[in-house]
Amino acid sequence: MKTVSYCMMTALLMALAACVTINVYFPEAAAQEAADRFIDEVIGPDEAPDAEGEADAFVPVPKSATSALPAAALAILDWVIPPAHAQVNIDINTPEIRAIQSRMNARFSKDLSKHFASGAIGLTNDARVAVRDLSSVSLRDRSALNAAVAADNRDRDAVYREIAIANGQPGWEAQIRETFAQQWVSNARSGWYYQDSAGNWRQK
Fold it and tell me: In whole angstroms, what is the distance from residue 78 CA to residue 84 CA?
């Protein structure tokens, strides 16, 4: 009986370890900081003060896979598998990433900023941009806007992949995209539109 219990406990710990490994080693805080720095270089600082409480209205905050685990189990895992993410940084200073950032900054200033402000485009919940409402865009300008959105999405997809590769973890691409999805909204200007986790448009 003791042998069976021991085996079951060992199997449980191994299963829990497998569940937690991704979150333990993905440096979420460092990824958020890196995303903020990247986004700040693209859209610049928000000079308009936020309305009180609006910053807390963002909905799509993903739950950590560890949140459902019992505290006692996590304590055991901390002992079995020491956390290894505290000193990890995310590098976003490679030539490839800087080139993408430069293109996005130029495109934002020239083509996209005014359309974010008018609500014609918005931030999607997968860290991209989408055309939301063309009623404020003249017929003459719609093709150019669609082209700018498509180009920006190519650069967004590329930069999430490049950041993962630059940090030696191609498998992090989905988590980096998820982190950027949150931080794009957190850094969005008041009045911009964004999608919540269900895909509904909301205004910040």
Answer: 10
Residue 176 in contact with residue 92, Cβ under 8 Å? no
**CA-to-CA dists, residue 106 to 42, 44, 66, 146, angstroms:** 8, 11, 40, 16
pTM of the complete model beyond 0.85: no
197, containing H or E segment:
none
Give the pair of three-digit tokens for residue 11: 């199997």
Is pLDDT above 80 for 13? no
Query: Of 182, 198, 194, 134, which Cα lies nearest the Cα of 33?
Result: 182
The span from the CA of 131 to the CA of 168, in Å, is 34
Tokens 């950041």, residue located? 163
Task: Retrieve residue 167's tokens.
Answer: 């940090």
Pairwise CA distance, residues 177 & 180, whole Å: 5
DSSP string computed for 109-177? IIIIHHHHHHTSEEE-TTS-EEE--GGGS-HHHHHHHHHHHHHHHHHHHHHHHHHHHHTT-GGGHHHHH
